[in-house]
Design goal:
Blueprint (H helix, E strand, L loop, with lengths): L14 H9 L9 E5 L5 H7 L5 E6 L2 H10 L5 E5 L12 E7 L10 H11 E12 L3 H5 L2 H6 L6 H10 L2 E9 L2 H16 L7 H12 L7 E8 L1
Parallel strand pairs: 1-2, 1-4, 2-3, 4-5
Antiparallel strand pairs: 5-7, 6-7
Helix pairs in contact: 1-9, 8-9
């Protein structure tokens, strides 16, 4: 993940990130070996280190992508390696829990099966796999500039269920979240960060609105799913 604004990983979570962290049950973290695919700046690592993991490993595709996390997450329980969803640099049956936040839509088209095979390989039996990705709804797609510009992929519930079933996973939980304030937050990111190279406009105000929105039932922006390896 390109850190074009030289941002630090967030320790106080709000909005989507707060919901994402809470979506992972403490029982899947405490004294567990956890893998974060596409760890970015390391915000998830900072969070789960406070939740008594045995080890957390973050991978991203280049050393440069890992630099922020390495510089800000200083703990012997945290390790960082170059790697990706299609080739995970760990031995088979190593992890108790794997997470992948907003990654599957960025891997090469039609390689989702490879990703699920690799996750199945590194997970122990009965291990948990958490995933989030943009949801395949009309509003989520049509208000996503990347969907128009680069065919940024969005996934349906049925597609993600089938991917799991095809690769020895059963679905334990599905949640679809985010409404209109999440759309505003998305557009704010594209305009402020990527267009003007500036910190997010009215960040706290918008994130507080998104935080409240994620406490409501339902949504149409992002899908969160929890699998268990059979």
């Amino acid at each position: 993940m390109k850190n074009i604004l030289n941002e630090k990983p967030l320790t106080k979570l709000i909005g989507r990130l707060k919901y994402t962290a809470k979506f992972v049950k403490d029982s899947d973290l405490k004294n567990k070996k956890v893998l974060d695919i596409g760890c970015g700046y390391g915000w998830f690592e900072l969070n789960v280190l406070k939740r008594r993991v045995k080890q957390v490993a973050g991978i991203d595709v280049t050393s440069k992508d890992l630099s922020t996390a390495k510089n800000h997450v200083k703990n012997k329980k945290a390790v960082f390696k170059v790697g990706g969803a299609l080739k995970i640099p760990f031995k088979s049956n190593y992890f108790d829990t794997v997470v992948s936040w907003e990654v599957i839509e960025h891997i090469p088209k039609n390689t989702e099966d490879v990703m699920f095979k690799e996750i199945n390989r590194v997970l122990k039996k009965k291990g948990k796999f958490y995933l989030s990705t943009p949801y395949d709804s009309f509003l989520s797609k049509y208000f996503d500039p990347a969907w128009w510009l680069i065919q940024h992929r969005h996934y349906s519930k049925n597609k993600l269920i089938k991917l799991g079933q095809d690769h020895n996973f059963k679905v334990l939980e599905i949640s679809i979240k985010g409404k209109f304030w999440s759309l505003i937050g998305l557009l704010n990111m594209y305009i402020s960060k990527w267009l003007f190279r500036q910190p997010l406009f009215m960040r706290d105000e918008i994130e507080n609105k998104i935080d409240a929105e994620y406490k409501e039932k339902g949504g149409f922006i992002g899908i969160f799913i929890k699998y268990e390896k059979k």
